[in-house]
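FAQ

Q: What does a record look like?
A: Structure on top, sequence underneath. For example:
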């Protein structure tokens, strides 16, 4: 299998990495975090100018029609700078869902604006106690004349507080846990009966919990065929899982670089601690973990569109487990090698570790995907 990137893919990665290094220093990120939204719309427009918001939008709708490998490379570079803008939630998950759900009207209405970076459309699917089970949907949508009435709760909706519009999953038939009977609806953040609690997560990202109480939307708000949205939701989240694996790899490599630089400058007994053999062994282990994670992120990107569902899920779960374990190891070692300063807000290594921890919990944690891997292998 060829793991070399094309010239265009390498140029894309280099462009994003250069943008991050020029515009996303640790100090600049601190200033962005102080804002109400917790991310910069000005930088979002610059990312749009680079074509990143159009990456997963088909050419027919003004996008670039790129694939999972391109998305992985972008996420790898964005991870290096701990970028706060909603690339994953608004430029990966949402276009992927609209690309697969089979609603040309919704696609034509939303995708050009998404590609241009003019509209933030957020998928609200996760519910309490679901861990990583995408088919666990308790939110209901009851047909009422020429409308639907939605009731339920969505939680940890990334960047939900700044969404211009939501794509909310709800069950139109069946019981919680069924793969059939799940639909998607376009809902405005200001809809009557929609309450939203906005907060910051452990990694300082903005998220929101959404409570839907008799939220009435017109029948035209239904996206795709009624009760047939699960395959599109699953495909979108699989691309998201692949993308977030790429982000984790970018973070791990940045952590290793920061740790190596610190050990070269920190001195004990008159010499840099990087010369102590036991610490060299630990840093070598950190490097090996990051390299293994890199290989698994490639596997996730290649396999997330594999037609064989069993093979696809097995590969993605394997990648999530390996990268979750590697991220924890690299993060913990980095904190210890930085000593007490590694725990403080003043050093970026603590922020890297918090983001790696949040990534492990996103789209199903290590334990969940280990169980999924065993189940798909046994089948």
């Amino acid at each position: 299998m060829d793991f070399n990137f094309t010239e265009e893919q390498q140029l894309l990665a280099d462009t994003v990495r250069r943008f991050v290094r020029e515009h996303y220093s640790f100090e600049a990120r601190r200033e962005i975090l102080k804002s109400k939204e917790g991310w910069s719309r000005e930088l979002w427009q610059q990312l749009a100018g680079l074509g990143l918001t159009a990456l997963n939008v088909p050419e027919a709708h003004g996008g670039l029609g790129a694939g999972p490998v391109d998305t992985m490379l972008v996420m790898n570079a964005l991870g290096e700078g701990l970028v706060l803008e909603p690339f994953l939630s608004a430029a990966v998950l949402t276009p992927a869902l609209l690309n697969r759900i089979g609603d040309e009207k919704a696609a034509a209405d939303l995708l050009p604006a998404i590609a241009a970076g003019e509209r933030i459309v957020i998928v609200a699917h996760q519910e309490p106690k679901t861990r990583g089970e995408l088919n666990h949907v308790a939110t209901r949508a009851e047909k009422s004349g020429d409308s639907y009435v939605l009731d339920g709760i969505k939680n940890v909706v990334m960047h939900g507080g700044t969404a211009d519009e939501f794509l909310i999953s709800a069950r139109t038939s069946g019981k919680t846990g069924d793969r059939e009977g799940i639909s998607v609806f376009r809902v405005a953040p200001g809809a009557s009966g929609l309450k939203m609690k906005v907060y910051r997560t452990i990694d300082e990202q903005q998220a929101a919990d959404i409570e839907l109480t008799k939220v009435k939307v017109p029948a035209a708000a239904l996206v795709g065929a009624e009760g047939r949205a699960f395959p599109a939701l699953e495909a979108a989240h699989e691309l998201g899982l692949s993308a977030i694996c790429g982000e984790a790899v970018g973070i791990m490599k940045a952590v290793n670089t920061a740790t190596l630089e610190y050990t070269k400058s920190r001195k004990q007994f008159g010499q840099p601690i990087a010369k102590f053999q036991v610490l060299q062994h630990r840093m070598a282990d950190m490097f090996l973990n990051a390299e293994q994670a890199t290989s698994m992120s490639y596997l996730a990107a290649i396999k997330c569109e594999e037609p064989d569902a069993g093979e696809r899920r097995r590969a993605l779960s394997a990648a999530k487990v390996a990268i979750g374990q590697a991220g924890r190891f690299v993060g913990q070692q980095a904190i210890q090698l930085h000593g007490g300063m590694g725990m403080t807000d003043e050093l970026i290594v603590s922020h890297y570790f918090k983001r790696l921890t949040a990534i492990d919990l996103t789209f199903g944690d290590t334990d969940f995907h280990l169980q999924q891997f065993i189940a798909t292998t046994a089948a």
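Q: Is there anything notable about this one?
A: Strands lie at 121-124, 140-144, 147-158, 165-171, 182-187, 194-200, 206-218, 222-223, 267-268, 271-272.
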